[in-house]
Every structure is written in C-alpha cells, then in structure tokens.
Amino acid sequence: MNAILNLVVFILVLSAIIIIHEFGHLLAAKKFGVYCNEFSIGMGKVLFQRQKGETMYSIRILPIGGYVSMAGEEGTDVTDIPVERTIKGKKTYQQVIIMAAGAVMNVLLAWVIFIGVVMARGTVAGPAEPVISSITPNTPAENVGLEVGDRIVKVTLPDGVTVYPETFDEIVERTNEFVGEQIIYTIERDGVETDYILAAEYNSKMDAYLIGVQGESTIREIAWYEAFVYGTQSMWDSFIQILAAIGGLFRGVGLEDMSGPVGIFQATSQVAQSGFISIILWIGLLSLNVGIFNLLPLPILDGGRIVISVVEKIIGRPLGERFETVLMLIGLFLLVGLMVFATWNDVLRLFS
C-alpha cells in the first residue's frame, strides 16, 4: 500500500511541476498571439475536453505531466495558420520570452513555495553560535578533550591572524584555508579559557578534512511579512547550490551523485513520510531544478531553442529545418544518455 501511495505522490509531484511549466509557455504564447491548438493536463486518451476560444483544454487519462501545442513547433501542422501566428513568425525577443516562460514559472512556483513554507513554520534558523553542540567520535576534537558546551572564543591561525568568531560558520570559513595545519582554539569552559591545538584530519566517509565539532543553529520566531525575505534567501541559496552542482558536472565533479527518475522517486518517497510541508518544499526544490535545467543550452531543451533563435537573428536567416532536426536529435541523444547514466547511478546505489 505504501508503495502505491508513494508512486501516486511521485506522479502528482512531477505532474504539478510539468503542468506549471507548460502553463508558462501557454500564457506567454497567447500574450504574443501564437496559435495554441491544445493545452493538455496528462497524456493518452482524452477524459474531458472544453474549447475556449481557439484552444482546446484537455484532461487525459494518464496523469503524467502535460503539454501545450504551439503552432510552429516541430511536429505541428501549420498549413492553415498564418506565419505571423506561429512561434517562428514572432520577433526574436518574443520567441525567447515564450521559450523561457516555462522555466520562469517553475522558478516562480519555487519562490512562492519557499516563502509559503517559511510563513507556515513561523520560525527561521539563525547562525549557530560558536558553541560546540556535538563531537564526532575518534576525531581530533575528542582526542584533545573538547566537550559539548565549550565556547570557542578565539582562533589563532597558522599565519598569525587571530579571529574572534561570532558564529560557527565563521570558524569553518576561516579554518578551511589551513586544511591539515595546526590551529590554536581558545575554549571557554566554566569561565576558564584554555588553548587547544588541533589539525583537521581526513574523514573518508565525509570526504573532507574535519576536527570533529558541530554547532547548532539558533531558532527564532518571525513575523509573517519576514517570510518574504527569508523565503527568498532560502530559494537563492538553493539556486546557487544547483548552479554550482551543474558547473561541477561539466568539470566531471559529482557525476557519481547524479540521480535519475529512480533516485527522485526514492527521495520523494522518503520526503512523503515527513509530512505535507516537506512534500510542498520538495515540489519547490524540484521545480527550481527543472527551471534551471531547462535553460541549459541543449538543443532539445528550452535553453537550446533560445540559443537557436538568437543565432538565427544574428546570421539573419533560419538554420534550416533539416539542420535544426539534426541538432534536436543530438540534444535528445545527449539527454537520453544523461538520463541512462543517472539511472545507472540510482541502480548502483540501490545495491550498494
């Protein structure tokens, strides 16, 4: 029963993200007068249809995403449609807006969700004070006798610089510059200050150099209107992390951590056990990922199509249907290859 419920949640989560993406394309296309034959929620056999204006709005039997059929897209019949009503017949900036609108809607959905979740919780996590909240066993911190509750009042770095930290993050940021070198930590315990000399050691499980101490974030209540600031900041932090992860992939870093549909399904199943707010936040995070990913310059993605439109504007002529088809096939090949690789990673993790 849990497996079926998890599958339903997984389908609904992905469908919501895809539908909002396609709805963004629809709104932008209609704004610029592109003929849209159909907007569908779901795929497969039609369950319900209603004509509104020139567009047919459909609900189909398979609740797997959806689509908008715009005149001028590859595979659409434009025999009876004036060229100025097709996406190819629009000005370059209009084409760019139409093709970027799906990703923009995904980012807007994520923004609303991040703000809404912070508002619903009514609290935010502040910076951790420079106080040790936990100590990892068999690490330099435990070996020299540091204890939970110790306050780090001063850090003397190997270059002679002395830091008086106000947050735990400040300690991490400054000491990361001297990995493996001896650093003097001045600890206050029961009103008495004592110096401890520690050097970070490599931890294979964490794949990082650690001294073995952690701080604990402070929690404070916020007014409802502060949720706009903290929700936006939270989404921006996620945005930067996603960009950094994508940048790492191009350098060959983090390839083993990539996840495909299997991994996303597993993560969704775990999130579903944590409650409604966790699911909503997961939708926001996935929507942000989808929005950013769709703007990558792969020909089959919106980002690639934007690049093609800009190139056509620069050279003053269309690239040609045959050449564009080849580009799309190359993009499809790369995308399928990426999905197969990510799914293989998921399978390996299942049996590891």
Strand content bin? 15-25%
Q: Structural class, from secondary structure content? A: alpha+beta
- Overall shape: it is elongated
Q: Mean pLDDT across all residues, rounded?
A: 86
Helical residues, percent: 40-55%
Order of secondary-structure elements: HEEHEEHEEHEEEEEEHHHHH
Going across the biggest sheet, name each strand in turn: 6-5-7-8
Q: Radius of gyration from the CA trace? A: 26 Å
User: Sheet with the most strands?
Assistant: 4 strands, antiparallel
Number of structural domains: 2
State the distance separating the first and last CA atoms.
Answer: 26 Å
Helix count, DSSP H or I runs of 4 or more residues: 9
Strand tally, please?
Answer: 12
Low-confidence stretches: none
Write structural notes for this entry.
The protein contains nine helices and twelve strands. With 352 residues, it is α+β, with helices and mostly antiparallel strands. The chain has two domains: 2-123 and 228-350, no CATH class; 134-216, PDZ domain (Pdz3 Domain, Roll). The strands form five sheets. The protein has a four-stranded antiparallel beta sheet. It has a two-stranded antiparallel ribbon with strand order 1-2. The chain has a two-stranded antiparallel ribbon with strand order 3-12.
